[in-house]
Specification:
Radius of gyration: 18 Å
CATH superfamily: Aldolase class I
Helix content: 40-55%
CATH architecture: Alpha-Beta Barrel
Number of helices: 12
Bound molecules: 2-phosphoglycolic acid
Distance between the termini: 15 Å
CATH class: Alpha Beta
Shape: globular
Number of domains: 1
Number of strands: 8
Largest sheet: 8 strands, parallel, barrel
Strand order of the largest sheet: 1-2-3-4-5-6-7-8
Strand content: 5-15%
Structural class: alpha/beta
Length: 268
Amino acid sequence: MSTFWIGTGWKMNKTVAETRRYVADLRARLPGEVSADYALFIIPPFTALAAAREAIGAAPVLLGAQNMHWAEAGAYTGEISAPMLEEFGIDLVELGHSERREYFAETDATINLKVKAALRHGFRPLLCVGDSAEERAAGASAAAVVRQVRLAFAGLAKGEINRCLVAYEPIWAIGEGGVPARPEEARCVHVAIHVALKELGAPSVPVLYGGSVNLDNAMALAGEPAIDGLFVGRAAWSAEGFASLISKVMAARKNIRSTPAEAMSAIG
Ligand code: PGA
């Protein structure tokens, strides 16, 4: 069974003190042993990265940043560079979230520069792509997100793309008032992204789903073979919520693994 990713991006939430409490609480609630079949991650704001790194300690939780600039240093007031992030020992960097694209004028071209810079510094880029409500209504969802994937990865070698993660996050599904994608709807877009990644020579890049994931829909989404992980916002902003979601998904996937067909193939 390939690794299943479960992570949360905190957006502009949580102080240092709140981060320490969250991580301590999460550590206490995580299942005793998180098997190698799972990769868990949290993406706090920049100001809480040091506290999060310290609080995570040896727990099996990866740490990510929400954005970074592509330049090493320079006259970019208010920005954060990869060398600055290196000091926190981050594993991942989230790039191209639709809120960054919409409110901070990020483009496919600047996201491409950021992906390259992240890879140069040994971070695993978590590329976020998403379709708008208009694109969805016009039946252009898959085309829109595949375009974003291709532009973000333009000029990269296969081996570099293989070090990335992609998150499909329909813009219409994210946040308050968002409508979660139905599993079969998400499936179509995930399959299209997987096909594009295969064409780019990187067939094993995991594609996570994000957008109003919660305790009610997480299991159905996680049961879709083309969905390799869940990227969660609000439902994981309490350690209790995140831990419950992780436990539920793990329990549901255990059942998938022990279907008669898999049991048969396991015994050859
Ligand atoms: P949400 O956010 O789960 O609160 O909808 C998802 C995201 O923006 O990544």
